[in-house]
Design brief:
The chain is about 75% helix and about 0% strand. With about 220 residues, it is mostly helical. It folds into two domains: about 50 residues, Homeodomain-like (Arc Repressor Mutant, subunit A); about 150 residues, Tetracycline Repressor, domain 2 (Orthogonal Bundle). Helix 8 packs antiparallel against helix 10. The N and C termini lie far apart (about 80 Å). The model has no long low-confidence stretch (mean pLDDT about 90).
């Protein structure tokens, strides 16, 4: 019974911290805000997590670690089935983004709060998060980049990396605006339409990667010669 109560307390803290960190950021959220929202005392936070930095890291780790494990397991299966051929590009992109779309619409897995918080990790980097960002974000994106790269040999490394950045950034933007797509498009698109968003996203991402290589840039020195 004691272990169950301890687990429930830790979950209450994590859930409250997840929402508040997503809404206000790390610096805009105090431990007092979290304890008030979770209806626990400060000693409980110290007992379970030690400090705010550790709590912030654990909030993200508990969501992103299983997500990435599932992504990479599916990616390995697709690569194995493809053998010597490049794995199907639309399928690789779907494996990369679909779990995030599913998590976005599932409050039990963090919903919009955790997706917003993940975006904060990438756009508002914090020094103490560097290890987690490397192991859970950069490593996973690198694995998918390698798989995608096999289908787009016509792109230079620079061209490919720019396009990968655009695709990852557009995924964040899509999820951030999905709740108001009806308003933003004057009713042309529906708000909260995860299925349509995912389908259009995969199609668009494939088009980004398979478009002709970008023209070779002419340096300012050569242009003025």
């Amino acid at each position: 019974m004691r272990n169950e109560e301890t687990h429930i307390t830790a979950e209450k803290i994590l859930n409250a911290a997840e929402r508040l960190f997503a809404e206000n950021g790390f610096n805009g959220t105090s431990l007092r805000h979290i304890t008030d929202a979770a209806k626990v005392n400060l000693a409980s936070v110290n007992y379970h997590f030690g400090d705010k930095e550790t709590l912030y890291t654990e909030v993200i780790h508990r969501r992103i670690q299983p997500l990435n494990a599932a992504r990479l397991a599916k990616l390995d299966q697709v690569i194995a089935l493809a053998g010597d051929q490049p794995p199907p590009l639309p399928l690789v992109i779907e494996i990369l983004v679909k779990p995030v779309f599913e998590m976005h619409q599932d409050p039990a897995r963090g919903g919009q709060h955790i997706v917003k918080l993940i975006a904060r990790c990438l756009t508002e980097p914090l020094p103490f998060m560097s290890e987690l960002v490397t192991t859970e974000f950069q490593t996973t994106i690198a694995r998918f980049s390698q798989a995608i790269r096999r289908s787009v040999g016509h792109l230079t490394p620079e061209d490919f990396m720019w396009r990968m950045s655009f695709v990852v950034g557009s995924m964040q933007h899509t999820l951030a605006t999905l709740h108001q797509m009806g308003q933003l498009t004057r009713g042309i698109c529906k708000s909260h339409d995860h299925e349509a968003a995912l389908s259009h996203f995969v199609t668009s991402a494939v088009a980004v990667f398979t478009a002709p290589a970008s023209p070779t840039r002419t340096s300012s020195v050569n242009a003025s010669a």
